[in-house]
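To the wet lab folks,

You asked to see what we're planning to order before we commit. Fair enough. Below is the target structure as tokens, and below that is the sequence we designed to fit it. If anything looks off to you, flag it before the synthesis order goes out.
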């Protein structure tokens, strides 16, 4: 991820392409609109390289996977906690 940086002084800490003020979000929104890498470079950001756009996609995927793992971990902990509570409420010593 050497092409993406997060600096609190630039765009309030949003991830940007290194050496620019172009946010990952801006590039992803253009991709979401159906623009090709070439169109983004030609029509919007001529200073970008294809690898910059790929880095934006990689950054987004990495953060989605991280968020999923955190969410899964929290849900798993909650499930274990609920089972322990249920067990303790239903446990009857002999």
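Sequence we intend to order:
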């Amino acid at each position: 991820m050497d092409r993406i940086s997060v600096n609190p002084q630039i765009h309030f800490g949003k991830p940007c392409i290194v050496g620019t003020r172009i946010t990952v979000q801006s590039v992803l929104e253009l991709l979401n609109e159906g623009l090709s890498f070439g169109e983004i470079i030609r029509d919007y950001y001529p200073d970008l390289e294809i690898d910059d756009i790929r880095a934006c996609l990689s950054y987004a995927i990495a953060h989605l996977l991280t968020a999923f793992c955190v969410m899964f971990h929290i849900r798993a902990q909650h499930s274990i906690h609920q089972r322990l509570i249920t067990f303790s409420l239903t446990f009857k010593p002999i």
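Structural context that might help your review: Strands lie at 4-5, 16-17. The first strand starts at residue 4 and ends at 5.

Thanks,
Computational group
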